[in-house]
Amino acid sequence: MLGLRQNLAQFTLLVAVNALVGGTLGQERTVLPLLATDVFGLELYTSSLTYILAFGVAKAATNYLAGTLSDRYGRKPVLVAGWLIALPVPVLLIYGPSWDWIVAANVLLGISQGLTWSTTVVMKMDLVGPHRRGAAMGLNEAAGYLGVAATAMATGYLAAEYGLRPAPFLLGAAYIGLGLGLSVLTVRETRDHARLEAAGHAGARPEAHAGLSSAQVFTLTSFRDRSLSSVSQAGMVNNLNDGLAWGLFPVLFAAAGLSLGQIGILAAAYPAVWGAGQLATGALSDRWGRKGFIVAGMLTQALALALIAVGSGFGAWLVAMVLLGVGTAMAYPTLLAAIGDVAHPAWRARSVGIYRLWRDGGFAAGAVIAGLVADAFGIPTAVTVVAALTAASGALVAVRMRGRDHTPGLSLPAATRHLRSPRP
């Protein structure tokens, strides 16, 4: 049976699991950029951002695989595998004697996040069906990024009181143990819900979708379909500026003389507003449409980044970080919901994985672009460049994406006719 109310218990459990997924990522947001400079003595921004590059590449690739694996083997095994891969991460972060160990930890963290976060997204889409998808994605992403925010603030406090290692990462170890236990013992498989939705699907002819290969789904999601490709590029740019915020903002704030406590507040404010705001924006996009939220969100993020580049001091930066969270809250769950709107249930998990491949590839792109520009011209210039890219991305969505893509598979019959292999 499909629907949020009908599957409320499992849906709520998955929200809690994704909060733990977000917390596992949040253990790094405040502490790791400072660990790079204060403990390992890395001076070049391109060197210190290698952990974000490693995380982004690993997570992007795993996102792509997560959709295919969850279609083939089921959602729950993929979720459990993601938690198992995360088990060594806190140990490496605590005891790593060189920066290479930290980079290796972030490869594992990226793989884990790709499997766990992608799978919780797909499972919630399976449970709720087509009519409350924006609300479901808002709840999912809110839980994840409120977990990021709460942990970023908590680890800032722990680092100030007890040092950069090991105390902040013990919190992440607890999250991983709890998330693994819940996933093994209480989460139920949801693949049959997707099959039920596909059986009653009213979009394009079923035979236009059932035989699509992964390569064909990749082409549709990345390039051929106007809405899916618009969403994919916007997701990539969104995480490009998130990678900038993760890797360089704590360094910028520390260089301005802010305390660890203030840096923790700033590092938490952005994902906290982002997380809480999605509770409203996801549901509102079900009513008002996806495109307007995505365009406005990207432009708001660009404005916030510009204010960070020209601003100084805790108060000005706090306002800008809140605004950055508002813009991200408008775009983030809406992007995921738009993928779910257009992709057919028969290959939706793969399309979500491909979208998340592009989106989390933004972490890697952000690490490279921000690092190179910051080394050459300084952090404020790097922030300005990313602000311009974010504004351009919003403008591209405004021009290319179709409006009110609410009907699953609405735009795809013509596209899939070109992609289907001839039948004998």
Automatic annotation (TrEMBL):
The keyword Cell membrane applies. The chain crosses the membrane at residues 78-95, 101-122, 142-160, 166-187, 292-310, 316-336, 379-399. GO terms for cellular component: plasma membrane. Keywords: Cell membrane, Membrane, Transmembrane, Transmembrane helix, Transport. GO terms for molecular function: transmembrane transporter activity. Residues 1-406 form the Major facilitator superfamily (MFS) profile domain. Pfam families: MFS_1. PROSITE patterns: MFS, SUGAR_TRANSPORT_1. It is a multi-pass membrane protein. It is found in: Cell membrane. This is Putative MFS family arabinose efflux permease. The lineage of its organism: Bacteria, Bacillati, Actinomycetota, Actinomycetes, Micrococcales.
